Hints:
globular; Leucine-rich Repeat Variant; mainly alpha
Amino acid sequence: MTWEPQANGLQQIIAILKESQSPDTATQMAVHMKLEELNQYPDFNNYLIYVLTKLKAEDEPTRSLSGLILKNNIRNHGNNLRPEIVEYIKHECLQAIGDTSPLIRATVGILITTIASNGGLHNWPQLLPSLCEMLDSQDYNVCEGAFSALQKICEDHAEVLDSAALNRPLNIMIPKFMQYFSHNDPKIRSHAIACINHFIINRSQALMLHIDAFIESLFNLSSDDDHEVRKNVCHGLVMLLEVRMDRLLPHMPQIIEYMLMRTQDSDDGVALEASEFWLSLAEQNICKDVLTPYLPQLAPILVRGMRYSEIDIILLKGNIEDDDMVPDREEDIRPRFHKSRSHAIKSGEAGGGGDEEDDDFDGGLDDDSSLSEWNLRKCSAAALDVLANVFREECLPIVLPILKDTLFHHEWVIKESGVLALGAIAEGCMQGMIQHLPELIPYLISCLSDKKALVRSITCWTLSRYANWVVSQPHDQYLKPLMEELLKRILDSNKRVQEAACSAFATLEEEACTDLVPYLEYILQTLVFAFSKYQHKNLLILYDAVGTLADSVGHHLNKPQYIDILMPPLIEKWNLLKDDDKDLFPLLECLSSIATALQSGFLPYCDPVYKRCISLIEQTINQDMAWKQNAGFDQPDKERMIVALDLLSGLAEGLDGHIESLVANSNIMQLLYQCMQDALPEVKAIKDLEAFYFNSSPLQVRQSSFALLGDLTKACFQHVHPFMAEFFPILGQNLNPDHISVCNNATWAIGEICMKLGEETRQYIHLVLKELIIIINRPNTTKTLLENTAITIGRLGYVCPVEVAPFLPEFVRQWCTSLRHIRDNDEKDSAFRGMCHMITVNPAGVLPDFIFFCDAIASWVNPPQDLHQMIQKILHGFKNQVGEENWRRFVDQFPSTLSDRLVAMYNI
């Protein structure tokens, strides 16, 4: 393959490559434009590979940059390159795999992987044989370069390499890689393990055939001198624990002893990889059996791993106490994601959850961006947390002495790790900790005044983990002092402490709810003062704390003196923020909670807020249409539309009928019709990919639209009614339980609409009933969706019993079991009335499952009198139909508590 560059062209490209390394933004922009121009010339890519592989006299950064620009060109335009150019690039890559420079070898490896990904491995048949052959080279650089490239290929193409499409090259590669486990160079040994590790999780067939030999080889390398080798050994064992526990079980004592040693490794990367082992082991059924003897060794190691290192403290600026006057850097403010409204049964057992997801344990405190990645401290804390959930109180005799030594230590770093450990065990060991909390909580409250900011901040988090217990005790003893100290920390002179205190206070608000009402004025004055004190990042967290307070105390906030404290600073922020300012989102969320809580108290503010929400939705829809029609437009960020829809929901829920005039004078129904049909966008270009992944999902637009539809139905149905023929088909299309939150809100909205629509619902039942019956019978459906579905089916039966009753046998059993736990409320009332109507129409439909109906009606504490009579009539009718003898036999099947309850409640 011969191609020679022209001298002046080569010099021009080298000059551009050197310019592009300039830190000056204007220079970089000019370079970017020149590169775009050069991309018009097909052989530009030949020049780039030439600089990378042939110009050995040129400096390494310039050569490497040439390769990276070529990589981007192949990724973006690879399919349009002429075949001979691609072949030339492939040939040169394989020739340069053994370059003397590690940087160039790595760049060539990245380039090879990009070509393989872009064109498919099947279009480069000589690649794998060539690289595997190079592994045998006596030249270290060739061997290492080939292994480096293979490692990237294994990472990107694990499944393809084990497929029949390529004739299963892994059958040759796995045994070959294992030969290099004993290579005399540590980097080669490390590459060999890393390559094979990529095939563990997928249980690749070729690896499973050699699994015992692989495990034995890992054991042989367990004490390797090289930290990268040890790290890869640990990583392999952690993954094997998940997929081939059967093979590790006979060696488990030795593996645990090895991991205890490696968790204390002098290299942090090895220690972190080994710490992952305890997280994985905790998920296995055998954890308790195999780990019990080692817990006394493991617990102190994990607590030691929670200490901040000297480097951590420097990165976290942990020695700087007062920084609240220092403005935040924009890059330190992480993207935040709005959680759309999800309707659950209001006073049900589950509370207001949507998809019932647990918050991830973040190792105590989510340290700032310099340490936000997963590290040894967080992994150690998470491991103690999950193990506390496995061992429960049994681990306390081991952990309590460690806590005693660390919590009261004179060195602040050790004391801080003890406070973190105490927070980590909170969930798993709560029952056993209760006897110690009367002593520990006051001590922790005193730690909120510690002179070290990092101790104050972690104490906020740990106290939040015990908030549930604090709230259940006499308020003067614990809640009041904790609240007072947390409010002082909200006004701390250290930004990290402010953040931790705000988050902890939000947790306390959720636990305490209306118990905070006596202290509202003091709380509001503190939070409002923080508005004037906070820098950018913490201001966003403060909005959340204010919104959570409104959610927690509800209508108790609707007092003139509270409104006068709270609203002026919020409205001031509202007036300052432009429509395209991201800070508007958390403020809108906060106002949504406040509007719901204040109810009529929000009336003086509702007009401008309502109009701005409508404007935000309109702007986003128009931008979305422009983007779809013209590739030159940017894809809009739909989060502002979602947040605006949710704030309108908050207004509708809070203002109820008072929102009618605002709705009447706006085009909200037309906008809602468009939002309900928001489609998943097609990704038209690479630049849109990022927007696609980082923008809010279109599913959230629909989720929020259905929430607003339900709330407007309750508040002013006269404006929703004319759109029923358009809305009902869309609701039916969104009854897809694969998208739980969308499905949940659509289901809830249907239930609210049919209660207002009455018999008119008849013409729409065929659009939704079949889907609702599928959902209620679907295994593993979340509790919230099941309850909402059951209530909506009951409500459809209430307004159209003749149409729904024939389907009773298809859903009655699941309906009864879904609603047997929810508390007495309006939704339960309408659903049970519907069931009674349906049974009256089709009594035979309930016969085979009548015991489930009996169980469900027994869940009522105090049914309304007319509903009580309806239920009693059905029971007596059933008893009369089957006769006394059969009835007695039937009741004998019941648990005694159920039959006693039915006798007491319904006199049967």
